[in-house]
Design goal:
This protein is of the alpha+beta class. Among the domains are: 23-82, no CATH class; 89-214, Band 7 domain (Tetrahydropterin Synthase, Chain A, 2-Layer Sandwich); 286-330. The chain is 56% helix and 20% strand. The chain has helices spanning 23-42, 109-115, 138-144, 148-165, 169-173, 177-194, 216-285, 287-313, 319-330; strands at residues 43-46, 51-56, 59-64, 67-70, 77-82, 88-92, 95-98, 104-106, 116-118, 124-135, 199-210. Strands 6, 9, 10 and 11 form a four-stranded antiparallel beta sheet that branches. Strand 2 and strand 3 form a beta hairpin. The longest helix is centred in the last third of the chain and has 70 residues, at 216-285. It is elongated, with a radius of gyration of 53 Å. The N and C termini lie far apart (181 Å). The relative contact order is 0.06.
Length: 331
């Protein structure tokens, strides 16, 4: 190279010299960095729906409420956040893969296995349900029971299997579903209190209860027969309820008519007897006057009937003398 270009001299570039920092400044900077690391590892924030559980070298120390707090740094105290205000959920017999207005579900083998249950009358059903719960005591939830979530899930399956096994298939599928869900929730809460798991059970809901696919056609035929039987029984009761009140009404009407007729005849008889008694008393006081009055009243009635008959027949001769006689009788 030097022979080809004799007038060119190659030189290495000089490296810039770094400024020398004072030892005190370096120490101060390192101290600041250490302090920032300590503060960053010692300060923490708890959300409004959470509580903080502080452990010192693995031992429970205290609970902290929502807000900004300080703990011993560098792993001396550790923090576990527990969602105490959130409503948690566990699913049994299915898994939700995509929640929304039209949720999508999956049915893995373990979910299908936990859904198969035996009823009290030895029928097999696929029971799907969900449990909504809340962590009531963070200390018990973390330290009283190992693997609290898995234990709570096993408790759910045990309680629901017992409740389904104590009832018939008709009760499980129809009228008894709400009652069984309430009974299972109460029993599950008792177990949570007994084992001090720190969970409050809010709701247990049976999502879907159906016979297995292998026996569904036969089950549907039996169910249709039972529904037809129930329909005929309901129709017979409806006809019974329509005819019995009608017959009772007719009988009641007949009784009331007979009672009214009897009352009328009794009252008429009492009136006739009272009138006869009054006439008799008047006759006893003035026999001649009473006899004459009775005679004239009778004659007046006879003449009125004869006059009406003559008018209806159209023959008006001799009508005037009868009317005059009637007037004389009245006088």
């Amino acid at each position: 190279m030097s022979q080809d270009f004799p007038n060119i001299e190659f030189r290495m570039p000089k490296m810039p010299k770094l400024p020398k920092l004072p030892a005190k400044a370096v120490q101060l900077g390192l101290a600041v960095i250490v302090i920032l690391i300590v503060l960053a590892s010692g300060m923490y924030t708890i959300s409004p729906d959470e509580m903080g559980v502080i452990q010192r070298f693995g031992k429970f120390v205290r609970l902290t409420d929502p807000g900004l707090h300080i703990k011993l740094p560098l792993g001396i105290e550790t923090l576990t956040k527990v969602p105490v205000q959130q409503q948690l959920k566990q699913e049994f017999g299915f898994r939700t893969t995509k929640p929304g207005i039209r949720s999508e579900y999956a049915f893995p083998a373990d979910a299908t296995k936990e859904a198969v249950m035996l009823t009290g009358d030895l029928n097999v059903l696929n029971v799907e349900w969900i449990v909504q719960y809340k962590i009531k005591d963070p200390y018990k939830f973390l330290f009283k029971m190992r693997e609290a979530q898995a234990t709570f899930r096993d408790m759910n399956e045990a309680v629901v299997r017992r409740v389904i096994g104590d009832n018939s298939v008709d009760e499980v599928l129809t009228t008894g579903r709400d009652r069984l869900a309430h009974e299972a929730r109460e029993e599950l809460q008792k177990l949570c209190n007994l084992y001090e798991i720190g969970i409050e059970v809010l709701q247990l809901i049976f999502q879907d209860i159906n016979p297995p696919e292998q026996v569904k056609p036969s089950f549907n035929e039996v169910n249709e027969s039972l529904q037809e039987k129930e329909r005929k029984i309901n129709e017979a009761w409806a006809e019974y309820n329509a005819e019995i009140p009608k017959a009772s009404g007719v009988a009641e009407q007949t009784v009331r008519s007979a009672e009214g007729y009897a009352t009328e005849r009794v009252n008429n008889a009492k009136g006739d007897a009272t009138r006869f008694t009054a006439v008799y008393q008047a006759y006893a006081q003035a026999p001649l006057v009473t006899r004459k009055r009775l005679y004239l009243e009778t004659l007046n009635d006879v003449l009125q009937k004869i006059g009406k008959k003559i008018i209806m027949d159209g023959s008006q001769k001799n009508l005037l003398p009868l009317l005059n006689l009637n007037e004389e009788v009245k006088k």
